[in-house]
Amino acid sequence: MADLVAPGRSDAQRGIKLRGPRVEYLAFKLGSDTYGVPIGEVREILKLPPVTEVPRAPGEILGVVSVRGLLVTVMSLRARLRLVSSESSRKGRILLVMGAHEEVIGLYVDEVLQVYRLAESEIEVAASVLGGRLGDYIVGIGRPEGALLTLLDLRPILGRTDPAGRDAT
Amino acid sequence: MADMGDKAREEFFSEAHEIIEGLSRDLLQLDSSRGKGPVDPELVNNIFRAVHTLKGLAGLFGAARMSALSHELENVLDDLRLGKIELSQAALDLLFRGVTIYGRILAVEKGTRSDPLSDIDEFLRELADLSESQSDDAPISGAFYELDPGLLAVLTEYEEHRLRTNIEQGQSLFRLRVRFELATIDAALSTLKTKAKPHGEIITYLPTGEGAEADSIELDILMASKASLDVLRSLLGGEQAQIEEVPRRSPSAKDPVLVPSRLGSHGPSHDPLPYASAHPASAPPRPKAVAQRPGALPKTASTAAMAAEVSLRSVTQTVRVDIRKLDLLMNIVGELSIVRNAIGRLTESVRKSPELREIGMELYRLHRGFERQLADLQSGILEVRMVPLGQLFDKLARVVRQISREADKDVNLVITGAETEVDKLIVEELSDPLMHMIRNAIDHAIEARIERERVGKPAVGTIALNAFQKASHVVIEVEDDGKGIDESKLVSAAVKRGLLAQEEVTELVHREVLNLVFIPGLSTKSDVGELSGRGVGMDVVKTNIGKLGGIIDIYSERGIGTKFTVTLPITLAIISALIVQVEGRTFAVPLASVQEAIWLDPAALRRVEGQEMMTLRGATLPLCRINELFALSSVGKTKTRPYAVVVSVGARRLGLVVDELIGQQDIVIKPLGPSLKRVKGFAGATELGDQRVALVLDAPALIEEAFLGGGDAVVGASYG
């Protein structure tokens, strides 16, 4: 992962003629790295409410919370991607996304940054960037405004079986 | 069944269900009124109409068996209506069986049940036989009346029959001439009928053809009544209505007016209903009549059209709603309450700043109003989910009738509180347990006739079904005046089967003994049912009621009777729970499975084959330490005096060891999401207020795990 850590300055890329439809990505932090998912996947961003741990649940499940009366299972995205764990911070947020079986899942991330608009031409296809275990979960690398964004595919992460990711605009 | 849209199918089923329920209700009423004076012809008519509508529905949806059944039932009912066959016990039995078969056919069509329905053909034959057994019409006795021959000629077979019956009963005949506004004729006519009903029967009505204006119509109404002319005049008379008594014709008169031209024609009537039928096939009323009544205006085209229109209009002011839609509305209310809270906070901060004080006050008032109306909305939606228990009780009344006849016992069912309302889902789940209890009461508790007379009880046994609301719960009592439960035999059976130690017997109090009937295997008929007076599977009944968050209690006295009391939450969503704490975590235990909570005496603890146990009043109670079971990390301070919450399912008991008892609370259980469905031991989670979520322990699952070792209890969900 080391090669992903430091986003190099990429001012040169600003000059590239942008092609293809633009998609908005929500950028967030897991540990020290920055990741992104299409904003259309995210129904809501919440501050971390008190989480009730569920004994016997898989390790990546932090527990359950109540979102306005709706019981939501919260999953640590960091643990799900088997990244090195770090302390949860006050900046921690929950992204409400749609999981398998029409279940609303709360994804715990360490910090929410901002929304980037990326054209297709700005996205490097992931396979060329890295292989290995995470390969299935990553659609590509985006480099907007000098940042380095690892773009995630939530479908395999959440065990969702819908044919195409919900592209957001 | 022919192809049709799911929605139409659903509509068909629910409509058919509704009609069959009404049918069953009317039959019960007919049954109870039998032998108490003349049968209400309107009741028979209602039943006839219901079957007729079912026939139409069945035809529409290609349900052939239902069609055939309706057809035969219709014939029988038509004969009953016309007095061609008598309303005998046998005839009623057949009709009741018809209702049961309707239910079975529906279940088969719906695919919820496989049933060859092989006995239907035989049933249809029995119906046909009954229909053919009709007696010939007796010749008319009694006086004849000065009736307009034109009017007589247009009477339907049914109306003729009613006229004859009324004359035989010594009623006088009256002619009412009433003017109706065309715009309001439906309502006005039905008001008139309602007013007339207690005093007599309206046999027929026809337009007079006189005095008709563009917007009004005059009807001649023939009515039979015991009341005097004056009484009727004061009751029904008015500017628009003139009433005369039809004079009796002198006996010397030659030709009796009531020539029953169609008497003896036994074929099915082509004109099943005297007025607006529920089925368009019979809409143009009495076409024959038009030609046969010279000089009089027959039912005009406009009134005929009106009649058809009446039949298309819904009878009831109700809407059927999918319960999931109500859940959706409930969620929206949940969202709104968040908005309410946000506005509340905003209002508070505005009120704090002195320069915005006036706006703050205004906001405060608005917020209070909003709060109130939101609460109303919420309770309104909850109310919509509620249905009266009467729906269920009607079904049970049918069961009582059937079983008591099978068992050859006379049983009177007394129902109170049928209007008590409960969540629709609970009513559905309640029908089997209640039916079970009633069956047991008739089969085993109510004594045979001779036995009852011997002990000086009335020959007819009584089963009371009482429902009433008690705070946020509904109580349903099933009470019989049978022989009661023989405790000594129950205890000795329990000891014999090793469910109870001999030395424990003396410690049992009355109530505990009776609770033995809920132990599986102890109350089955083949073992002690005959002795205890109770039969099959009361343990099943208890389990099912427990699933609904309810509790069942028993009270019985030898020779006097037995009473079961079922206490249920009004809505499934809310149950009572014991809130406990373990290692700083809060859990809820549904009270339905909690027997008691005790302080854990360290001296009473022992370990048998690795399993921690304690002795509780002579019996061994296995213990389960929640913190170890769930591998809860310690929060530091060790609890010196933990508690054991004794939970039970059937005969199995388990002590859940917890640190604190917080108290009792009504909670709303929400299931854990699909991603956690493989996590065993929790029935769901609940909000305890201020956003805190507590897990609800699944007592039956924990007990099973403790006794069977629950191998796969710690299996997590997997992704991708």
Describe the structure.
Chain A is 10% helix and 39% strand. In chain A, strand 10 and strand 11 form a beta hairpin. With 169 residues, chain A is mainly β. Chain A has 4 helices and 11 strands. Residues 1-17 and 164-169 of chain A have low confidence and may be disordered. Chain A is globular. Chain B is an alpha+beta fold. Chain B has 5 domains: 6-132, Up-down Bundle (Four Helix Bundle (Hemerythrin (Met), subunit A)); 149-276 and 284-312, Alpha-Beta Plaits; 323-384; 387-569, Heat Shock Protein 90; 574-708, CheA-289, Domain 4 (OB fold (Dihydrolipoamide Acetyltransferase, E2P)). Chain B is 42% helix and 21% strand. Chain B is built from 22 helices and 22 strands. In chain B, a hairpin with a 3-residue loop joins strand 10 and strand 11 (561-569). In chain B, helix 1 runs antiparallel to helix 2, helix 2 (41-60) packs antiparallel against helix 3 (64-81) and helix 15 (424-445) packs antiparallel against helix 20 (538-547). Chain B is globular and about 100 Å long. The two termini of chain B are 42 Å apart. The relative contact order of chain B is 0.05. Chains A and B meet through strand 4, strand 5 and helix 4 of A and helix 12, strand 21 and strand 22 of B.
What's the layout of helices and strands?
The complex is a heterodimer of chains A (169) and B (720).
Chain A: H1 2-5, E1 22-30, E2 33-38, E3 44-47, E4 61-67, E5 70-76, H2 77-80, E6 93-98, E7 104-109, E8 111-119, E9 123-125, H3 126-129, E10 138-142, E11 149-152, H4 154-158
Parallel strand pairs in A: 2-11, 5-7
Antiparallel strand pairs in A: 1-2, 1-8, 3-6, 4-5, 6-7, 9-10, 10-11
Chain B: H1 6-33, H2 41-60, H3 64-81, H4 89-110, H5 120-132, H6 149-153, H7 157-168, E1 172-181, H8 185-196, E2 200-207, E3 216-225, H9 229-236, E4 241-245, H10 287-292, H11 301-312, H12 323-352, H13 357-384, E5 386-388, H14 390-406, E6 411-416, E7 421-423, H15 424-445, H16 449-454, E8 461-470, E9 473-480, H17 487-496, H18 510-514, H19 525-532, H20 538-547, E10 551-557, E11 561-569, E12 574-582, E13 585-590, E14 594-599, E15 605-608, E16 611-616, E17 619-625, H21 626-629, E18 643-649, E19 652-658, E20 660-668, E21 682-687, E22 693-697, H22 699-708
Parallel strand pairs in B: 6-8, 13-22, 17-19
Antiparallel strand pairs in B: 1-3, 1-4, 2-3, 5-7, 8-9, 9-11, 10-11, 12-13, 12-20, 14-18, 15-16, 16-17, 18-19, 21-22
